[in-house]
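Please predict the structure of the following assembly.
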Amino acid sequence: MELKPTKPLSGFIELLPAAQRFVDECASRMLGVLKTAGFSYLDLPAIERAEVLTDKDNWDEIETQMYLFQKGDTKMGLRYDGTVGLSRYVAGHLNNLTFPFRASQFSKRYRGERAQRGRFREFYQMDMDIMDINSLSTNYDAEIIAVIQRTLDSVSEFIGDNYVLVGSRPFWDALFDYLKLTDDQKKEIFILIDKRDKIGDQEFAEWLSDVLKNEKLENEIKSVFTNGYTGFVNKSDNLDAAIKELDDFMKTLSNFGVKNAKIDLSVTRGLAYYTGLVFEFKLKSYPELGTAAGGGRYANLTEKFSKTKIIGVGAAIGFSRIFVGLLESGKIDLTQFENPIVAAVLPMGNFSVPFAVDVVNKLRAKNIVAVAYLDAEKKFKNQIEYADKIGAKFSLIIGEDEVKSKEISAKNMATGEQQKLSVADTVKLLKTA
Amino acid sequence: MELKPTKPLSGFIELLPAAQRFVDECASRMLGVLKTAGFSYLDLPAIERAEVLTDKDNWDEIETQMYLFQKGDTKMGLRYDGTVGLSRYVAGHLNNLTFPFRASQFSKRYRGERAQRGRFREFYQMDMDIMDINSLSTNYDAEIIAVIQRTLDSVSEFIGDNYVLVGSRPFWDALFDYLKLTDDQKKEIFILIDKRDKIGDQEFAEWLSDVLKNEKLENEIKSVFTNGYTGFVNKSDNLDAAIKELDDFMKTLSNFGVKNAKIDLSVTRGLAYYTGLVFEFKLKSYPELGTAAGGGRYANLTEKFSKTKIIGVGAAIGFSRIFVGLLESGKIDLTQFENPIVAAVLPMGNFSVPFAVDVVNKLRAKNIVAVAYLDAEKKFKNQIEYADKIGAKFSLIIGEDEVKSKEISAKNMATGEQQKLSVADTVKLLKTA
C-alpha cells in the first residue's frame, strides 16, 4: 500500500511542541492585555455565506484568493479577515451589545494565494475593534494604538521594540481635490501609493507619470514622500483640517503613553474600508517581517448589513506573520520552551503503579506538571532515559521500598543528587523547582 | 441596496459576549488540566489534502458530510475530527517526538450534516492521545480516562457529575468467532449494535433477526445487553481473555482514582479505528446531551502514513456539544459572566483625558479590567449610563477638581457610595473589588 504524504499542504503551519509552546505563550500574554483593556473576545464562524464574503468594494484581489465552495444549495467560503464576520455579528446584535463596544478576535483566516516565505494560506490574526453608533472620538483611535503597543510590548523579550507610523486618508482625499484630479486618476494613484513599497521609487515615478502626464502634479505628489505635508499648509480648508487632525492626534498619542510614533503619509492601508486615520506598526529589529499590525478608522462598518451607522476604529496584528516568521528565521531560542515537565514518576513494576498515580495526582492538583511512565514493567534504564528525554527536572522513583515506606526517591536530573522524601515534602520541593 | 443576512449559516455557532466568556472559562480550566498532565498542545491545520481525509475504512457516512473543495490542482477539505491530522503529524515527526507522546488538541472541526438541535456543522472538540511505538500498557487507557474525568470535574459546577461506561472490541470479536458468524454478519451486526441506542430494542431485534435468521444466535447476542458477559465465561479462550482484560481494567481504573466507572458492552464507538477497550462519558444531570466524551485504543494510528507502528489510546471531549448544548437549553446562569469590567473611568471633558488614561493604564498594569469612556465631551449622564450598562463595579469620575488634586472620585455602582482617593488607594480598593 502506498503511504500518504505526511507534510501539511503548502502554506499551512504546524509546529513541533516547543515552537507551539512559544506561540501559545505569546498569544496568552497578548490576549491578557486585551482582556484587562475590557475587550470582549468573540469566536466567530470560519465559514461565511459567499454573499457575505464577496462584493466588498475593490477587494477583487482578495476575492480570487478566497476558498469558496458549495454544500447543497448554499455557496460559502472561508473568511479571509476578521472584519467581515465582525460587521455581520455587530449588525445582527445591535440590541444585545453595549456601545461603545470593544471586540477582540484571535482566529485563523484563509487566503489561497501563492505560498511563499512568510505568506501563509492559513494564519492567525489578532483583531481589536472599538465601535459606536453614529460617532466616536479619535481618542479611541489613540486607545487602539496604545493597546496594540502594549500587546506587542508584552512579548518584547522575543520581538524587541516597535514603532508606529500614522497616515491620513482625508489628507490624500483633500490633496487630490486640491490638485483637481479626475475620479479615475484618484483611484489609480491611490492603488499606486499602496504599491510604492513593493515597486520602488523609480517604477512609482514612471507609473505616476503615465497616469498624470503632468510634471508639476507628479512633483507635488512625490513631495509628500520626502517632505510630508509641509508643502500643503494653507492650500485648502480640507488640507488644513486633515493636517490639524494629524498634528492633534500625535499629541493625543503622547497623552496615551504611546512611544515611537511618527507621521508617515505613505501609510494608506491599501484599498480597504478605512476612511480616517490609518496606522502601521513595525518591529525595529525585524524590518524583514514587514507590517506587524495595521488598522484605522472606518466610517460605516455595517452598511452592507444594517441601516444603523456603526463607526469604528480597528486593527489586526499579524500574529502568524510575526511569530511563525520569527521561528522560520531561526531567531528564537526555544530552550525555555523545550521541557515543560517538572516531575517524571517512574514506577518500578506494576505493583507500584497505584502509589505512582497517587503521587502524580497530588502533584497535578498543585499545578505541578507531572507524568508517570506507565509501562511499569520496563527496566529502570528505559524509564530514566524517558525522564531524561522529556527534560524532567526531577525523577521520582517508586520501587518496593518506597511503596512500603510511602516515601519517594527524588532524583534531581541536573545534579544527579537523590533524596528520600514524603509525598508532602516532594510537593514542597517541586513547587519551587 | 438590499441588506445582507446577519445570521450565521445554519449549524454554525456564534455567542454573545457573556456566553462566550462562559465557554472560554470552561475551555481554560479544562486545558489547564491537560497542561499539568504533561500533554503537548498541538494546533494542526484545519484543511488537509482530500487523500488524507478520505479513504478511511468504513467512514463513508462521514465522507458524504465532508467539506471538500479544490484550489488550483489540489483537492482538499476541512477536517472532521482531530485524529486524521494527528496521525499525519505523528508519522511525519517520528524522530522529533519523545514517546510515549502525549498530545492534546482543542480545535474546530467540520461536518456538513443536516443541522439540528445539538448538531453543529462547525464545532470544537478537545482531544487527548497517548501514543508509543509498538506497545503501550493499558495503564495509559486508565490514565486517559482519569484525565478526562478531571477535565470534566474542573467544570462540575456547570455540568454536574459524570460517569464512564467501558466496552471492549475484543469481546465482540471473540463472541462473533464463538458464534461462528460469517464476515458479512459480523460487519452488519456491529453496525447494528452501534445503532441500537437510536433505533430501540424492538427494531434492533427485527434487524438482528433479518441478518441472522437464527433465534438461538439472536438470543445469545441480545443477552449481552441484559446480562453483560456472564453468559460467556469459559466458552472460548478469546472470550475469557477479553473478559479478564475488562475485569482487570476496572481495578486499574479504581487505582487511578476514577469514580463512577462500569462495564457496558453495548459501548462500541461505532465503526471507527478502535481495536481494544473503548469508553464513553455521560453527564448524570444531562442525559439529553448524549455522549460527553468518548475514545479508546487503536492498534495502528499511522498505518496510512508510515511503516512504523504507533499504538495508542485517545479520546475526544465533545466541547461544543456539551457547552453550547447547555447554553441552548437555558440551564446555565450567565450572571457571573455578564460584567467583567471592574472600573469605568469617566473623564468630564477632553482636558481630563490624559489623567483618565493614566489611571486606566495603572489599573490595567495591575490586571484590573478597566475602560475609559473616551467621548469625553459627552454629558455625565451619558457616561454614567454607560458605566451602569457595562456593569462596572466602580465608576472613577475625573473632573476639573480631580485633575488638579490628582485624586479620583470613586463611585461604588452598587451602593452609590462615593469617595475621593489617590491613584494608589484606588488601585488598592479595586484590587479587592
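The mean pLDDT of chain B is 94. Chain B touches chain A through 99 residues (CB under 8 Å).
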